[in-house]
Amino acid sequence: MKNYDVVIVGAGPSGIGIASMLKDIGIEKMIVLERNQVGNTFDKWPKEMRFITPSFTTNYWSHIDLNSIASGTSPAFTLETEHPTGQEYAKYLRLISKHFELPIRENTDVEKVIYSKDNFNIQIKGGETIKSRFLIWAAGEFQYPNTEVFSGSELCIHNSQVESWKEIEGDQIYIIGGNESGIDAAIHLSRLGKKTVVLESNPDSNTKKRTTDPSENLSPYTIDRLEEEMPNERINIVDNSKITDVKLINNKYHIHVNDEIFSDYKSKTPPILATGFESSLVMVKDLFDWDESKSYVLLNEHDESRKTPGLFLVGPQVRHEDLILCFIYKYRQRFGVVSKAICERLDIDIEFLEEYRKEGLYLDDLGACGEECPC
Hints:
Blueprint: E1 2-9, H1 13-25, E2 30-33, H2 40-43, H3 75-79, H4 86-99, E3 104-105, E4 110-116, E5 119-124, E6 129-137, E7 157-158, E8 172-176, H5 180-191, E9 195-199, H6 220-229, E10 235-238, E11 242-249, E12 252-258, E13 264-267, E14 272-273, E15 311-313, E16 319-320, E17 323-324, H7 328-331, H8 335-345, H9 354-357
Parallel strand pairs: 1-2, 1-6, 2-3, 6-15, 7-14, 8-9, 8-14, 9-10
Antiparallel strand pairs: 4-5, 5-6, 11-12, 12-13, 16-17
Helix pairs in contact: 1-8, 5-6
């Protein structure tokens, strides 16, 4: 059985980001397990989809690129674009992996994790088991489309299953979900001359929310594109439209909505599901304590499981009460916190970590977070 100090599950932005930092600090007995290939999730994005956060090279002034996940790197510099596509960002991740010579093992599917005697036994598909003192869960959630949200969901097409919006047939398309992915789909379909109806379950759609938390409202990039497209009168956003079920009757998709005005929409083409993704944490759910709502895991000040010592979480699922750290430029700030906790227990000098603080990769005080802008 191979024995490591640190095993990282997932070679997406969070897994590669934390691995880059740990290797830079000097941890050698480490491996990153990736069930597909580096950048696989981003390679699957619809060709037209781009990052909502802008990339800009400011490393020269010690300010890290918003979409960077490793010190000294910038997608804007590497890719020469402000809003990378998924395929472009996948290239950036692969370049980082090669540049830092990260110990990534691709096509390695973790089937089960067992915690025993202060160690983790990670069982790999095919029968192999590896052992580690620390486990960092960075498997994310964007490989697990949420396709079972209501009866008849299987009749719909999840937005992550669309290679290009040019493939979608029909003149009028119904989109279920009004967050970033739903509005992004509506914009691209409208640009193709198709009418879209976005069914949003909240009483007030994200287009009307006003909060400085980018996890709670649409990004300026999306709002700008939406406002450019709305005069064409091809996008209709319907609030308070909670879908109860979808049925296929006489070659038409009947979308039943719990609404006082409309109770049934009919579509000739399958509705688009923009309902987000399920968490990969289901594989290790018993190793965490969960919030009463069961929507997120409870972590200590080191982003470590309160239930299982040595198990850390990095990535878009990190949350501390009302503080949601889902976007890259938020959750990457906790890389230094996790690295510090592991290095201290391995008796590795942590003084070097302070270099990451000015780059926004080491935020250990969340007390200043959650402030709204006065104007």
